[in-house]
Design a protein that fits this description.
The complex is a heterodimer of chains A (197) and B (130).
Chain A (H helix, E strand, L loop, with lengths): L1 H23 L19 E6 L12 E3 L7 E7 L4 H16 L5 E7 L4 H10 L7 E3 L4 H5 L7 E5 L5 E6 L4 H12 L5 H8 L2
Parallel strand pairs in A: 3-4, 4-5
Antiparallel strand pairs in A: 1-2, 1-5, 3-6, 6-7
Chain B lengths: L18 H15 L18 H15 L4 H12 L13 H27 L8
Helix pairs in contact in B: 1-2
The chains are: A alpha/beta (197), B mainly alpha (130).
Chain lengths: 197, 130
């Protein structure tokens, strides 16, 4: 019977078609990270550029993640050769200023780039409101499972990775994630400040 | 001010050339690097890729092996950072078993189907005489 054969062929092809259809819904360049929910890899990195205000650090000093326990830490991997990093720069700099009075610290990590190129890029972009650090041999980048820039990690006050963002991050995503982490913190003043945002 | 925290520093130990130990380490590094996927390439291992990130990852493989970790421990480190995606050969656990079993089932099924069809086609027809 012809219809029997057709039905059998369709039945045999169905799983393959379903698999391909599922494949089209996935971005092959996107690697699922095991880090969110886990303890953030520790790092001690030398400050390249100082940043501004309360987030500022002295160039040549080191920033240790361990010392930032109790704060929301935003770690943004960037490079001067990275075009999408230009897109997100304003959102990050503005967010760092916005959260300067809250228990938060923004850190830029220069990835596979010359420090001089990074510094030039910052001055071209009109400054960076938070400190940037250098990552020799990309040890920290690899510790964070990085495979491209920009990538942004938001670490909660307990030192766990709360969120990982691939590609240029927006002001909306930063506010949503940082606020949601901040409201889980006990002090009532933090929660009160968030009500108006 | 904890700058320069790398290395033990201080005592200068004389470096003795150990070509056999070095080549053994290189061979073990290459073997592990060949099993790890390059994150910035298309289907290449970090052993085969000339990219900067792959070279840096190979250096980590070498350092970890040199520090006494086993190849499995080094692979587990990368899997803990990049997920199992980083392993070119997935571990035979959980859903991954399907990846190993399905091809075998398909090949056996195909062989059975072909043999059945061949038997059917070569069977003498009812109407055939001699």
């Amino acid at each position: 019977m012809n219809w029997k054969r057709s039905a059998l062929a369709l039945l045999a092809a169905a799983p393959l078609i379903a698999l391909f259809a599922y494949g089209f819904t996935r971005n092959p360049a996107e690697i699922p990270s095991p880090l969110p929910g886990r303890e953030a890899p520790q790092f001690t990195l030398a400050v390249l550029t100082p940043g501004e205000g309360r987030m500022a650090r002295t160039p040549g000093d080191t920033i240790r993640l361990r010392d930032l326990a109790g704060k929301v830490v935003v770690v943004n991997f960037w490079a001067s050769w990275c075009l999408p990093c230009r897109t997100e720069h304003a959102a990050l700099s503005e967010a760092a200023t916005y959260y300067a009075d809250r228990p938060a610290q923004f850190i830029g990590v220069l990835y596979n780039d010359e420090p001089s190129a990074g510094m030039r890029w910052i001055s071209e972009m009109g400054g960076m409101t938070y400190p940037s650090v250098t990552d020799i041999e990309s040890r920290t980048a690899i510790d964070y499972g990085l495979y491209g820039v920009p990538e942004t990690f938001i670490i909660d006050p307990a030192g766990r990775v709360a969120y990982k963002h691939l590609g240029p991050i927006t002001a909306g995503v930063l506010r949503r994630v940082i606020d949601s982490v901040l409201v889980t913190m006990a002090p009532s003043d933090t929660a009160l400040q968030l009500k108006d945002s | 001010m904890a700058a320069g925290a790398q290395g033990s520093g201080g005592v200068a130990s004389p470096r003795v050339a150990q070509p056999s130990a070095d080549s053994d380490l290189e061979a073990r590094t290459s073997a592990v690097a060949a099993t790890l996927r390059c994150p910035v390439c298309q289907g290449e291992s970090i052993q085969d890729s000339p990219s900067e990130l792959a070279q840096q990852m190979r250096a980590i493989v070498r350092d970890r092996l040199k520090a006494g970790e086993s190849p499995e421990e080094v692979k587990a480190y990368f899997a803990s950072r990049y997920g199992e995606w980083i392993l070119l050969e997935p571990k035979m656990t959980g859903l991954n078993i399907v990846l190993y079993v399905v091809p075998v089932v398909l090949v056996i099924g195909g062989l059975v189907m072909v043999s059945l069809l061949v038997r059917k086609w070569t069977r003498p027809q009812v109407g055939d005489k001699g």
